[in-house]
Specification:
Layout (H helix, E strand, L loop, with lengths): L1 H20 L5 H8 L12 E2 L4 E2 L1 E2 L5 E4 L5 E7 L3 E2 L5 E3 L4 E9 L2 E10 L5 E7 L3 E2 L1 E4 L2 H7 L2 E3 L1 H11 L9 E2 L16 E7 L1 H4 L2 E3 L3 E2 L2
Parallel strand pairs: 4-13
Antiparallel strand pairs: 1-17, 2-16, 3-5, 4-15, 5-8, 6-7, 8-9, 9-10, 9-11, 10-16, 12-15, 13-14
Length: about 220
Amino acid sequence: MSSFTTWKSGTAALMALTITTAPLMMPGTASAQLFPQSPRTTTTQVTIPTGTSIPIRYDQAEKIVISPTETLPLTLKVAANIVNRSGTILIPAGSLVVGQMQPADGGSQFVASELVTYQGRRQSISASSDVIKTSQVGQGASTGNILKGAVVGSAAAAALGGLTGDRRITAGEVLIGTGVGAVGGLVLGRKKADVVVVNPDTDLNLTLRSSLALR
């Protein structure tokens, strides 16, 4: 009888110990309380589709005159807000578009490489203008009219300077008057020269060549 009583007492003590220590064997619950999981957040990336048109302006000159064989770095500006159907601004007006005028079949075109918003955010962009066709100009007053108010590439300056022999032009300058000249490679006695005359307000509007994922 004494052995049976001792056995019952031992069993009761073991059960009591088990019940008492059970909560200490649940570290998962404690961890969840000490380090609660953060709620999941969903980030929606805005993508502007291929083929979207971006209006452009160029504030440095009324026109750009280059040779169809030369490349000229340019920085343009977005002329109007690019918005979605609900009116949310995706690309704000005044954002910079960095790229270059470069040779293309039948003339030249602007090819964009980088978009810079007014907050300073930079990202790659694949967009281009239509091809601006090559024009042929000859000696006379028309040459001066073409260059008036224009920024001129070095190859175009040399070609047009060869029509008159005037050396006053510097590549990259905005010409207010009608004088023409060259920075180098002047060939006098030319009667005609091939140039591309770009009107930024109408010729440089861009079309996305691939979708633009804004970030």
